[in-house]
Amino acid sequence: MPTPHLIPPRSGTAFILRQGQRLKVTDPQGEQVSDFVCFNLNDTAEYLSSGRTIDYAETIFLTAGHPFYSNRSNVMFELVEDTVGRHDFLLTPCSADTFRIIYGHEHPHRGCFGNLTEALAPYGIAPDQIPICFNIFMHVTVDGDTGKVGVLPPKSRAGDYVVLEAKMDLVVGMTACSAEMSNNYAFKPIAYEVLG
């Protein structure tokens, strides 16, 4: 059996996921978001695309059975299991600017963007290459009349998970999200394991 890894609260990690391998991402305690991004291992100029994935799926509510596309319209992975069914692919990873602009922090945390920047640097991925992440377990609403976006507590409970299957060799970046609103004002870990 593979050994689960734990991403501590308000931190991130990066690793290689090979084509055909499955990645299980678990919310151990409930109501915790994980920002997920990936790049083509053999050409990191190819990256996960929110716009193309949403366009081709014709929905912002992505779940099991949906393929996730790159900026070159290649399938990077497919979501194959999902015990929650509600995630976000609209909002940017939180950053020091997020905490400064939205929360008014004078000494802001570097956020998921800063954590991803550090974790992905050894793979030659620069900060400006990090796109919108697939925010696993994040609960975002959109008002159909005004377009106003709301961030609500995640629907995930302790032990909820998603499983995705890589369709190419990937560099993966993941976090245990740092933004208070995203996680119902409590910071918790995220667990993950590579299957097969």
Tell me about this structure.
This protein is mainly β and 196 residues long. Helices cover 12% and strands 36% of the residues. It contains three helices and 13 strands. It has helices spanning 50-57, 96-101, 111-120; strands spanning 5-7, 11-17, 22-27, 34-40, 43-47, 67-69, 75-82, 134-136, 139-142, 149-152, 160-166, 170-176, 190-195. A six-stranded antiparallel β-sheet has the order 1-13-3-11-7-6, with helices on one face. The N and C termini lie close together (9 Å).
- Biggest sheet layout: 6 strands, antiparallel
Q: Could you tell me the mean pLDDT?
A: 95
- Unreliable stretches (pLDDT < 50, length at least 5) are none
Helical content (DSSP H or I, runs of 4+): 10-25%
N-C termini distance? 9 Å
Based on CA atoms alone, the radius of gyration comes out at 15 Å
Strand order of the largest sheet: 1-13-3-11-7-6
Structural class: mainly beta
Quote the beta fraction: 35-45%
Shape: globular
N-to-C order of helices and strands: EEEEEHEEHHEEEEEE
What is the count of β-strands? 13
**Count of discrete alpha- or pi-helical segments spanning 4 or more residues:** 3
Pfam families: DUF1989
Domain DUF1989: 6-171
Protein name: Urea carboxylase-associated family protein
Organism: Hymenobacter glaciei
Quick tags:
mainly beta; five-stranded antiparallel sheet; 12% helix; 196 residues; single chain
